[in-house]
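CORE FACILITY INTAKE
Project code: CF-77B
Contact: R.S. (postdoc)
Sample description: multi-component assembly, two entities in total
Requested service: structural model of the whole complex
Turnaround: standard
Below are the sequence entries exactly as provided by the requester. Do not edit them.
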Amino acid sequence: GAVVSQHPSRVICKSGTSVKIECRSLDFQATTMFWYRQFPKKSLMLMATSNEGSKATYEQGVEKDKFLINHASLTLSTLTVTSAHPEDSSFYICSASPGTGGTGPAEWMYQETQYFGPGTRLLVL
Amino acid sequence: QKEVEQDPGPLSVPEGAIVSLNCTYSNSAFQYFMWYRQYSRKGPELLMYTYSSGNKEDGRFTAQVDKSSKYISLFIRDSQPSDSATYLCAMKDSGYSTLTFGKGTMLLVSP
């Protein structure tokens, strides 16, 4: 259970083009989704948090006009890298937190976790 | 002082060894503690999650949380080459939805 998919897994594009990455929770509803960026041999860097139906909250230093995030449904969030440049080349990973559900401590803990997608490798030439 | 400290390694052990991975933290408000495993070029995979202090066991993995010392551990028994990966600790309090990650420890288990 708690499977998150990302598409595409890898994309190569020319400088100046826009790239859209999809993140889907396959077997649960995710009221909150997160987008991370990871450089080689570095830890995860949170870019933004999005709640279904609301505008995303961006971390300090992340350009919201460059990294457009849409969370239109409880199972889908998209990240669009607009006018991509070589410095945007990176590994982008989404994660999803389950929505409300059930009662009792087990379900309560389940809500507090994040489940990650497999990541999308972006290379901008 | 960083919120979460984790030794980056690499930690090299022979197959069958018991592995101990640790994180320390400074924010006493953290209540939820998780361990993720990340293979190269893959997304992190949730291994263990615990709430507050105590131990939790799942197969070869045991997670320990000592809130009084602000210290969490992950033990791997009978380590296998397939356990070679980067292990990230993560934690959060109940008031915010974001996780605070350690930088990850690279584990190498040799056959």
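Facility notes:
- The longest strand of chain A covers residues 30-38.
- The helical segments of chain A are 105-111.
Invoice: internal transfer
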